[in-house]
Structures are given as structure tokens and as C-alpha cells.
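Q: I'm writing a short explainer about Protein NRT1/ PTR FAMILY 5.6 for a general audience and would like to include a description of its predicted shape. Could you first generate the structure from this sequence?
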Amino acid sequence: MERRERGHGEEGEGGDEKWVHDSSVDYKGKAPPPRASTGVWKAASFIITIELSERLSYFGLATDLFNYFSIVLHQDSKTAAKNVNYWVGVTTVMPLLGGFLADAYTGRFYTVLLSSIIYVMGLSLLTMSQFIPRLKPCSNRKHCGHPRKVHEVVFFLGMYCVSLGTGGHKPCLESFGADQFDDNHPVERKKKMSYFNWWNFALCCGLLAGVTVIVYVDEHVGWGASYLILTSCMAFSILTFYAGKRFYRYRLPEGSPLTPMLQVLVAAIAKRNLPYPSNPDLLYEVPKSHRSKGRLLCHTNKLRFLDKAAIIEDKEGLQSVEKKQSPWRLATVTKVEEMKLVLNMIPIWFATLTFGLCVAQATTFFIKQSDTMNLEIIKDVSIPSASIYSISAVGMIISVTIYEKILVPLLRRATGTERGIKILQRIGFGMIFSVLSMSTAALVERKRLRVAEEELTAGGKTGPVSMSVLWLAPQYLILGFGDGFTLVGLQEYFYDQVPDSMRSLGIAFYLSVLGVGNFYSSFLITVVDHATEKTNGTSWFRKDLNKSRLDNFYWLLAAMSGLNLCVFVFLAKRYSYKSVDGRVVVADCEENGVS
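A: Of course. Here's the predicted structure. Afterward I'll give you a sentence or two in plain language.
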């Protein structure tokens, strides 16, 4: 890697305005990259474009996947819901692997490029499964009692190729976009805070198009036509992403981020019997002569056992220590504090899983409810059942816009801080909406069941009820409001609070909340199914939704969300944030202080 030398007096004469000193390089591998021609919105616009296309593809597939399993593969609602949850779960957990590989070995740009190609391969398989005669579900679609096995194999292979592609695409693309803004530059730092909001605005636009245009094509033209559209859009967006190569700022991979944490743990255990030093300043840290090479963390009093990894055993001086000590025996204070940051995130991660559980209902049982309702929104104008999901995107767009344009300026003036409110406050506020959404869903489902019972009693009607599908709008809208606060907050939290070397993994941690939330949903469905069938003789989940008790399931989720919110507030009040001070990152040294 080449390095540009700073000219004499450049620091004091605007040199920091000309160059970006945040460990990034330009497309030729030179550091530091020029500020004027790289990064910020000129680079982020290319990145957001491919994100919009990917979200169009993802939601175009995910939203109508339940219907595909039910209509084409003839699965009952319980099996279809589980299969959707498994696929969404795998798709949102795979980024843990992709994020690790990007941070450790491949870098974010090339990981995004490779994973996007795998993504297109998956979409191509789905397209072929609809057009190649031997791969179609049946030779005669109108009289298809059971789909061909080869179709199921190719279809699921294509879907899980999309999962694999998402595994590298999602954690790296968002963090790569955030890398285009310099944390040490006050103007770019503010733009970075807006970046996550506008990233999600673009995400919602892709979602909106996916659940309206693509779902409409699914139901009125054919699955093959929609898959062909998605494949073409994704292929074009890859070319657009590559075209922005010269404008990007790149972070070089730094090796496995797990190795330093393991070194801290091993060193702390090896020196467990040593006494703590009388002054934390006696703990080992990178010498001043090397501090310009990285951002440092200051010492905190939490998890003090790990501090023993930074105790200097050799009394001959720091130079002797650096030469003799292995990193498995002596760690810097920064490495110790990075380990603490990751450990402090674990309770927060667990406390957000119930929100992921609620989000999972929007693409499964909410869609199933819409299948049983009147889809005519005005006279002679009907919508595909899965398109009702678009209201969630509208809710998210509204909440993100209000937060960015109204709340943040007001809160900045009120609190005197750049962010306005703390990240965990934003996340917790969004969790309130999950309680309200599940409660609303329970009330609406109870009304739908009453209407179905009345119509069955009055005229023996067993098909879709006369109740309008727009009755589902409030629960989707409220959940969308919650997404605008909680999901965007989680993205910012896991990117901002992880060590700098783990930022792709940080976004993967956020995505894993949704992935594990889907697995959690499948597990809960199985447990409730067995428990209610054993206790009442009939399960809450039956093939006929009019004989099921989804309202009780939604009340259960509302209660779980309420209790979980209390736990989250308890944890958030005791959480210490990582704060930025110029070129050096310092963890908050106050016991109860946050920034």
C-alpha cells in the first residue's frame, strides 16, 4: 500500500480538509485518499442504488413466498409459515459469516461484488424454474395436484443461493456506505448520522416496489415474469456499483477480529492471580509514537477481570515488553476495552430478539390474514394479498422522514448533542410500537373471526370474508413506525458501537436480530401448537384460518413484547456508550455516563 506524505505545514493550513485521515485508502490502494474526489454522497449514491435493487428483489421474493408455498407447492399454512421463517432466518443469519470474512480477509468492496454475483445466480435459477419445461412445477399448471420434485429442488436451491448472496451483500454494503463518511470530520460525521436514515428511506422504496409492482406481476402475469425482472434489475445494479469504484473509500481487512479478543481472554486467564495495579495508567497501552495509526479506547471499570490482560509483568520498560511479550500474554488497554464493548452488546442483542419476533409476523400470518379477506379496496379494484405489506414501508418512510427532518433538529437544540437522543432511546421508543401493533393485530383478528362466524351462520359462506383487507392497515402502519425507530437505530448501534475492525460484523449482528427472530417465531409456533393442542384439544394454528386463534397468539406476542421492553429499558439505563474525541475513540469512563 502506498502512502502519501503530508506536506510541511499542511496540518495547520487545511491539510485535514484535503486528505481523509481515517485509515481508508483510495481505489488504487493509496492513503490517505483525497477528500474532494472520494466518499460522502457522491460515493454513497452508487451504494444506495444497489441496495434499492437488492431490497426490491428480497421483498419481491419474501413477501409473496408464503403464497408461493401455499398455492404452487400446496403446503398448509403452518408448514408454509415455518418454511418462510427458516428461509428468512437463514438469509439474515448468513451475514455473520459474510461480515467476518469481509472484515478479516476479503474487504467489503470485493465481498459485495462476489456475493451480488451469487445473488444473481440464485435469481437466475428461480427464473429457469419457471421457464424451462422440465423444471416447471407441472406440465399443466391448471391441473397441478403435486409439483415436480425437480422443481422443488431447483426452487429451493435458487432461494438459498439468494440467502448466500445476502450473507455477503447485506453486512458489507451498508458498512461500506458508512465508511464513505469520516468520523473525524464534523461535517461528514453529521452526514453519516443522516446516512442511516436515508439508507432506510431507499430500502423502503425498494420494499414498496417489491410488494406492489413485483407482487402484482406475480399474480397477474406470472412468477416467471417477476423473477426475470428481479434478475435483470440486480444484474444492472451490479454494473452501476462497479462504475463507482474510483469514488469509494476503502478499508483494508485487518485479519480476524476474533483473534485479538481471544488473546485478551487467554492473557487475562493466564494472569488471573496477579494483583490489580494501584493506577489504571500503569496498564499497557500503545506507545504515543504509534497512536496516529489507530483509534484508541480509554480504560473503564467494568468487567475488571479482563484488565489483567494489560498488566505489565516485565519491569524493564515498555520497549523490552514489546520485544519479549506475546500478544497472547499481554494486550493493550484498547484491545481489552474492545472485548468489553462486544460483551456489553450481548444483553442488548438478546433484548431485541422479541422485536424481531414481531417483525416476522408481517410476512407470514399477516399475509395469511389478508388471503382470507376482501381484497377490493375500491369498486372493481383489487390488490394482491401480499401488497398490503407495502403499508409497513409507508409507515417506515413516514417515521424516518419525521425523525430526520423534524425530531432530530428539535432534539439537537434541546439536548445540545449531535445525535439528539441516545441510540438505545431511539430503539426502545420503537419497541413501544411493536406492543401496539401486536395488540391491534389481536383486536382486528378477533373482529375478522366474528365476521367469518356470522357469515357462516347466516349463509354457509366458507370463502374469504366480506371484511376489507384495509382493516389490516393499522397493524402494518404501526409496525412500520416501530421499524423506523428500532431497526434504523439497531443498524446505527451495531455499526457505531462495535470495534472499528468489526463493522461489517456489526451490521451482521443487527441482521441476526431479524434472522434469529424468525427462528424464534418458528420455535414459538411449534411450542404453542403442541401446548394448545394438548391443553384444549385444538391448536391455535389450523389449516382453516377461520378455525384458528391467531388473536390469542398476537396477545401472547404483545405481552412478551411489553415484558421485553421493561428488560430493555433496564439494560439501556446501565449501558455505557463508546464516544468519539477527535482522532481517538474513548469509551465513556463515567460509571453511569453516556454520550
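A: For your explainer, you could say: The longest strand covers residues 578-581.
Q: Perfect, that's easy to follow.
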